[in-house]
Amino acid sequence: MAQVTMTICDRHHQRGEEVPGTTRRFAIDAFKTTADLCDECYEKEVGPLLEFLRSVTRTTIAKRPARPVNRSRKSKLDSSAVRAWALENSIDVSPRGRIRQDVIDKYQAAQS
Ligand SMILES: [Zn+2]
Fold first, then answer.
1. Cα 20 to averaged position of ligand 1 atoms, centre (Å)
2. Against a cut of 0.85, is the pTM above it?
3. I want to staple 9 with a disulfide (CB 3.0 to 4.6 A). Which of 15, 18, 19, 58 is the partner?
4. Per residue in 39-98, pLDDT tens?
5. Residues whose CB is under 5 A from ligand 1 (ion)?
6. Domains of the chain and CATH, by start
C-alpha cells in the first residue's frame, strides 16, 4: 500500500480518525509547541483562546496613550537637560520649541 505523507489532525488522530490538518505553531510565554490541527479542531480548541487574546489586545491598545513617534529627532536628546545646561552657562535658549543646533552642539561637546 502506497504511503502518502500528509499532516494528520492530532485531535482527530487521538480518536483514531485521519483528517488532514495544518501544522500550527503556538507560543505563550516560554511555552512553545506545534500541533497539527484541521480547521474544525483549530476553531474549536484555539478559537476561544484567540478571541480572548484579541479582546485583551484591544484593551491594551486602547489604554495606551497615543503618542506619535518623532522620527525627525536624530537622537535621544533631553531637551530639558539642554535648557538647564544652557541656563547654567548663560547661553540664551527659548523655554519652548526647538533648541538651536549650535546650542545642542555646545551642550553635546560639553558632555563628552
Ligand atoms: Zn481535527
1. 8
2. no
3. 19
4. 999 999 999 988 988 888 866 555 556 666 655 555 678 888 889 999 899 988 888 888
5. 9, 11-12, 19, 38, 41
6. 10-55 (no CATH), 73-111 (4.10.320.10)
